[in-house]
Amino acid sequence: MDVLKVDQSFVHEISADPVGNSIVCAMISIGKNLGHRVIADGVETREQLAFQQGQRCGEGQGYYFSRPVVAEQFAKLLDAGMPPALLQ
Questions:
Q1: Any domain includes 88
Q2: Vertex 42: Cα angle to 7 and 26 (nearest 5)
Q3: At what angle are helices 46-54 and 18-33 packed, to 10 degrees?
Q4: I need a labelling partner for 26 at 20 to 30 A (CA). Which of 3, 32, 50, 82 fits?
Q5: What is the span of the domain harbouring residue 48?
């Protein structure tokens, strides 16, 4: 195992639950300390992305970045890259 994925059930509670925040912070810290990639699943808001970035969780996935798309649209997204404003 070289990847730790933080489940969306924890990510969704980031702004509402201090205990959830602590759990997510601990999961990210454990993953990084073990030398694993850490991916936050279910990122849907700028606030969730900012929290993830603040914890130095380098990867995320979710509707904030894109809804599910077919392969051709996915290739176009990869070619275009993420708009910098979306990642700030």
A1: no
A2: 40
A3: 50
A4: 82
A5: 3-83
Residue linked to tokens 């990084």: 32
Q: What is the pLDDT of residue 16?
A: 81
Q: What is the pLDDT of residue 74?
A: 85
Q: How far is residue 73 from each of residues 3, 68, 80, measured CA to CA in Å?
A: 26, 9, 11
Per-residue pLDDT tens over the stretch 27-71 = 999 999 999 999 999 999 999 999 999 999 989 999 998 899 899
Domains of the chain: total: 1
Instruction: Please give the C-alpha separations between residue 75 and each of 27, 63, 69, 71, in angstroms, as whole numbers.
Output: 31, 17, 10, 6
> In this structure, is residue 15 part of a structural domain?
yes
